Amino acid sequence: MSTSTTTATRTIDGHVLPAAGTWEIDPGHADVSFTGRHLIVTKVRGRFTDVHGTVRVGERMTDSQVDVVIGMASVTSGSETRDDHLRSADLFDVERFPEATFRSVRTEWSGTQGVVHGELTIHGVTRQVALDASFEGQVRDPWGADRAIFSATTTVNREDFGITWNVPPEAGGLLVSKDVTITIDVETVLQPRS
Predict the structure, then answer these.
(1) The pLDDT of residue 175 is above 80
(2) Between vectors from CA 114 to CA 54 and to CA 105, what angle results, nearest 5°?
(3) What pLDDT score does 39 carry?
(4) pLDDT the model gives residue 176
(5) pLDDT at 107 over 60
(6) How does DSSP assign the chain, residue by residue?
(7) What is the DSSP pairing of strand 51-57 with strand 21-38?
């Protein structure tokens, strides 16, 4: 394995990767979104605007760790009525379960892509999920901060997390799909070493 390093990146076997260290998620440039289906046909998208956490990049990428907290009340889907329903006890029940969390337990990595295995807690229920993740690049912003961009995706069955509300339409099927695709795009900022 050949390695060369700068302050914010390193090149390992020809792939530019983020330097080892703690990269803090910039909440203003974090997009955690979900896509389900309405009437099993139309895609319905929503996102959360309250996202914070850290990506701790290891000397070996396989030693990296991810911790994320999402404020569930920050959900927005383009419809105030739907957002109120998402926050209600029928679905996210944000009064009882104000946060969702993801904590990695194991990382597989090759080149600029990997799989991050972890514990996703939503609605008070924790399940093992695998995120298909990638490192999208690094930039230095106009204020001198080094930023690394990561993306990830996974699909979960919302009923596995106790979110079971649904209405059967007259034509059959379900009003809201069980499977939900989660897509994550975040900018992270390299923190000074203590």
Answers:
(1) no
(2) 55
(3) 46
(4) 61
(5) yes
(6) --EEE-SSEEEETTEEEEPSEEEEEEEEEEEEEEEEEETTTEEEEEEES-EEEEEEE-SSGGG-EEEEEEEGGGEE-S-HHHHHHHHSTTTT-TTT--EEEEEEEEEEEETTEEEEEEEEEETTEEEEEEEEEEEEEEEE-TTS-EEEEEEEEEEEEGGGGT-------TTSS-SB-SEEEEEEEEEEEEPPP-
(7) antiparallel
CB-CB contact of 162 with 124 (8 Å): yes
Q: What's the chain's average pLDDT?
A: 88
User: CA of 155: how far to CAs of 61, 131, 171, in Å?
Assistant: 23, 9, 26
Copy the structure tokens of residue 92.
Answer: 């996210």
Confidence of residue 154 (pLDDT cuts 50, 70, 90): very high
Neighbours of 169 (CB within 10 A): 11
Q: What domains are there in the chain, each with its CATH number? A: 3-190 (2.40.128.110)
User: For position 3, what pLDDT does the model report?
Assistant: 47
